[in-house]
Amino acid sequence: MSQITLLDGSIGQELVHRHGKKPTPLWSSFVMLEDPSKVRALHEDYYAAGATVATANSYPVLPDRMAENGVPEQLEPLLKAAGSAARAATDANGQGRVIGALGPLGASYRTDFTHGLADAEAGYGPVIGTLEPYVDVFLAETVTSLNQLRNTLHATATLSDKPTWIALSVDDDDGTRLRSGEALSDALPLLQAPHVTAALINCSRPEAVTQAMPILAQLGKAFGGYANGFVEISAGFLEDKPTVDALSARQDLSPEVYAAHAMDWIAEGATMVGGCCEVGPAHIAEIARRLRADGHTLI
Predict the structure, then answer these.
(1) What is the DSSP letter of 240?
(2) Cβ(255)–Cβ(207) under 8 Å?
(3) Are 159 and 128 in contact (CB under 8 A)?
(4) What percent of the chain has pLDDT over 90?
């Protein structure tokens, strides 16, 4: 049997669900200043479910997002709050790793944005610098194109000595392709960068993640996936300053159904599984139960 890293599930989306606030582009971040105990409690719930990491609630906390919403001065306080909550929950748990989430520059899923190496350094520099004291690994999430991947790899290699995990997002109807339409296999040479210690598929339909697993298996590094529970990434979410109320949750992804998908990924050789948007502690708990029942060790 294998040693499996059990990732946590949705952070920002779960906070929106739990606390009934109307979604805004930054609400799930500002809750860290309004009531940081809610964020720590969510991390603790994931640990109690069986997760072996706490992913800091830092995905949208980027200089460009703060500036376009008129609150650039909140970048550092929000990042410190995110790192502190994840670290406190991990210390209280007595084991686990803190993961520093790095969302895409510009907006999620937007393959039409073009950024260069200098843009990536400028965008991620203050984020990585502020999060570094709190985290064990940086996780660049929802990478949707080869250009975005190159820039992200450059920034993470240049700005930190800590290992990086890369999470690519694939087409919901064709998991062999990035959301840009480029072949997922074309990302493999880039993912051989020495500081990249794991590659994952994230924020795509579980069925698409399953299609991607045999391709990532060719990498020769740790790999896995954590899918979302959306029906689709709608056109409304690709507009400027989207909120999650533009997306619809699937009704067929119970914890049992989602865990079955995750076990399919394990069967393909994945050693890292978890959940993204619309996947909560109950889903993670069911994956943990299935993994232990099959004799796997959670690390």
Answers:
(1) S
(2) no
(3) yes
(4) 81
Q: In what order do the strands lie in the sheet with 272-275?
A: 53-55, 97-102, 137-143, 164-168, 196-202, 222-227, 272-275, 3-6, 297-298
Q: Maximum Cα–Cα distance for the chain, whole Å? A: 51
**pLDDT, tens digit, for every residue of 249-282?**
888 999 999 999 999 999 999 999 999 999 999 9
Task: Round to the nearest angstrom and report the end-to-end CA distance of the chain.
Answer: 13
Q: How many H-runs (helices) and E-runs (strands) does the chain carry?
A: 10, 11
Distance in angstroms (rounded) separating the CA atoms of residues 207 and 298: 24
Domain ranges of the chain: 3-298
265 and 212 in contact (C-beta within 8 Å)? no
Name the residue with tokens 């975005």.
148
CA distance 279 to 43: 14
List pLDDT tens digits, range 133-188: 999 999 999 999 999 999 999 999 999 999 999 999 999 999 999 999 999 999 99
Residues 6 or more apart whose CB falls under 8 angstroms from that of 89 comprise: 40, 43, 44, 47, 54
Helix (H) / strand (E) element for 125: namely helix 117-131
Q: Scan for tokens 């008129």, then name that residue.
A: 70
Note the pLDDT of residue 16: 86
- Top-confidence residue, 18 or 127: 127
CATH of domain 3-298: 3.20.20.330
Q: Are 248 and 13 in contact (CB under 8 A)?
A: no
Residue 23: predicted pLDDT: 64
- Residue 130 in tokens: 């502020």
- Yes or no: say if 211 and 176 are a contact pair by the CB < 8 Å rule: yes
- CB neighbour list of residue 35: distance below 8 Å, 6 or more residues apart: none
Name the token pair of 35: 């009531």
